[in-house]
Design goal:
The complex is a heterodimer of chains A (472) and B (171). Chain A is mainly alpha-helical and 472 residues long. Chain A has 16 helices and five strands. In chain B, 25% of the residues are buried. Classes of the chains: A mainly alpha (472), B alpha+beta (171). Chain B: Keywords: Phosphoprotein.
Chain lengths: 472, 171
């Protein structure tokens, strides 16, 4: 009998999946159009007038993005673009749905859809720009320290710009003419580039030079420098801009990337301890942070009579958002039939998830969260497949920044953690956020294109004949 | 709009949303890449339409083995490497011949200077017993302490030493 059970193991590249992507994209455009029709029928009893235009617009955007991916990143991951398109489309529908609310219009939260549509187009333009201009993600590695400086400037900028009356606590906006931008959003990508470039060089020193103590690897004092610096910076953001979200995102991203680069659990333990200590320290004297914590612990106390309310509780947003989730139940009230507009201020931006929770229910909410999870998973998969350490770290950094942001916003809206003013990626109203997230997806696509591109075939050798199985 | 239509639309939308998630997961499932493991016998058979001609030839011993296994409850089902660089490797016994040696087409490729390229083979005989046969190796195949000279049935759990590698059959 011959040795028939021997096996060969050959490397197998990922196939080019552009046609799969096209099919998924068509699906991803149809779902929001369906949602749009659903909202129109529920509110007016007729199909909304702009439905055809909306569908065509979203479809055109998706098609442009797809064609550019086909040309400039042919081996990229097939899931990222459809999921981003679906989330962006759903976000547009939800904002349009909240635009129909007379209550919000009376509060001065007027029309947001056309603005958001414009920002989405701009986001796609950035997406195309990144794919066309960024030939290779490793070029970004050259700008490690420049990106550090740029990120610091972007993060610090809002603290120095004059605040406006309606900045609502956190100072994270810059006002230029009629526009307000959130530089912290852009900093998210740039800081990931810096961390990736920095940790790629320093990972060995951080991972190996350490003493073992009680099962944890304690880094040397001088290696603690960078993490202390980043921590101090995130505390400064918390103090001067009073924005818990950006601070948490920034520091969390650093700890995650440090852990990925060095494989040392001790960094996570240190990171958690340091951020807890820092947050507790700042909360002890910063009134805005205290307000947020009170609103987190006692959201329903806002309905008590004026004199029994805990100090600093000024808004019923948290309570209304919890009511939204509650009245949504498992299957939701149906699109256009909920009352999440009662949240009032920021219903279209920070609290957009409450509308999802009320009108699509737990089932829809889980689907949306799964979409985010799939997007992050594809980013992590890209990191695993990437062949260069910088690409690996960058992909991990970008997808964990995305994941952290989803967690911080969703956790805040559901009252799991104190609420912070951040936008749900793709879903929420906000120009800076849409542009940043489309660029982020573009960089991920570029890395995954490099990672999945089949290696060039080796030159044929003279003895390339496969070994014959010997019959015994 | 009637209540019924809206309810249908609401549930329909949730279904469509979940359908998208499921389709995306299916795409991910079909998107696995990395290395492909090809069974040589099946690859050669790929040119033929029907299952390979060898498959039937392989079938009887397997059935025999199974029926024999039913008769004798102590029939081994796997071969385990207990010492050497391949420690922990398990090969399921399915009636096929297992070759051991440094040759890279062996079932178990030994990275061991003391093993010959075609060192030994293990195969079931007609009664379903597993037999080990030394293929004229330089350093010999040992069962317990004794060097094998003829094909010998392997009892369960008895160590067989080839160079630095020790294997045994287990249930």
């Amino acid at each position: 009998m011959s040795s028939s059970n021997t096996t060969t193991i050959t490397p197998q590249g990922a196939p080019n999946r552009r046609n799969t992507e096209l099919v998924l994209l068509a699906f991803a455009v149809l779902v929001p159009v369906f949602a749009y029709a659903n909202v129109g029928l529920a509110i007016d009893g007729s199909l909304p007038a702009g439905m055809l235009g909306y569908g065509l617009g979203l479809g055109a955007m998706a098609l442009v993005a797809h064609l550019v991916v086909r040309k400039f990143a042919p081996y990229a991951d097939p899931i990222l673009l459809p999921i981003a398109t679906l989330l962006n489309g759903l976000g547009l529908v939800l904002i349009w749905r909240l635009d129909q609310s007379k209550y919000l219009a009376r509060l001065g939260q007027g029309e947001g859809t056309s603005n958001q549509l414009m920002w989405s187009c701009l986001g796609i333009a950035f997406f195309v720009g990144v794919l066309v201009l960024l030939k290779d993600h490793r070029i970004l590695q050259r700008y490690t320290y420049i990106s550090m400086v740029v990120a610091l400037i972007l993060l610090a900028a809002p603290a120095f710009f004059p605040a406006r009356a309606q900045s609502f606590g956190a100072k994270i906006w810059i006002y230029i003419g009629p526009f307000s931008i959130q530089p912290g959003e852009f900093a998210k990508i740039i800081i990931a580039i810096f961390f990736a470039g920095y940790l790629m060089v320093k990972r060995d020193a951080l991972a190996l030079a350490s003493r073992r103590f009680m099962g944890l690897y304690l880094p040397r004092g001088r290696d603690l420098g960078p993490i202390l610096a980043v921590w101090a910076l995130s505390i400064l953001i918390l103090v001067f801009e009073t924005d818990l979200g950006t601070s948490l995102l920034f520091f969390g991203l650093f700890v995650v990337m440090l852990y990925v680069a060095t494989e040392r659990t001790s960094w996570i333990v240190f990171g958690l301890l340091m951020s807890a200590a820092g947050a507790a320290f700042v909360a002890s004297f910063e009134p805005h942070v205290q307000q947020r914590i009170t609103a987190w612990l006692h959201p329903m106390d806002i309905f008590l009579p004026e004199d029994q309310r805990p100090a600093g509780l000024i808004s019923d947003q948290s309570a209304q958002s919890l009511f939204s989730f509650g009245s949504g139940g498992v299957l939701g009230s149906g699109l256009g039939q909920g009352h999440s507009e009662l949240i009032g201020f920021a219903a279209k931006s920070d609290f957009i998830l409450a509308t999802v929770g009320e009108e699509l229910g737990l089932a829809g909410m889980m689907a949306v969260l799964l979409l985010y999870a799939l997007l992050v998973q594809r980013g992590m998969r890209t990191a695993l497949a990437a062949r260069d350490p910088f690409g690996k770290l960058l992909a991990v950094g970008l997808s964990s920044a995305f994941a952290l942001q989803v967690f911080i916003v969703a956790g805040g809206v559901m009252n799991l953690i104190p609420l912070t003013g951040m936008t749900m990626p793709f879903l929420a109203q906000g120009g800076s956020s849409v542009i940043t997230n489309w660029s982020l997806v573009a960089i991920l696509l570029k890395i995954s294109d490099t990672a999945r591109r089949p290696a060039p075939a080796p030159a044929p050798t003279t003895d390339a004949e496969p070994t014959q199985v010997v019959r015994l | 709009m009637s209540e019924l239509t809206l309810t249908v639309m609401r549930l329909g939308f949730l279904a469509v949303l979940w359908l998208f998630v499921i389709v995306a997961v299916q795409v991910i499932r079909s998107d696995l890449f990395g290395t492909r493991v090809t069974q040589r016998s099946t690859r050669r058979a790929a040119t033929q339409d029907r299952p390979p001609a060898r498959q039937p030839a392989q079938q009887p011993p397997r059935q025999q083995n199974r029926s024999a296994g039913r008769q004798r409850r102590g029939a081994p089902t796997k071969l385990v490497v207990t010492e050497g660089s391949l420690t922990g490797t398990v090969v399921t016994l399915q009636g096929q011949t297992i070759t051991l040696g440094r040759a890279h087409d062996s079932t178990i490729v030994l990275d061991d200077d003391y093993a010959s390229s075609r060192h030994a083979r293990i195969y079931p005989d007609r009664d379903g017993r597993w037999i080990v046969e030394d293929l004229g190796s330089t350093n010999g195949t040992f069962m317990d302490r004794s060097r094998l000279t003829t094909p010998t049935p392997i009892p369960l759990g008895v160590p067989i030493r080839i160079g630095k590698t020790v294997i045994e059959l287990r249930k």
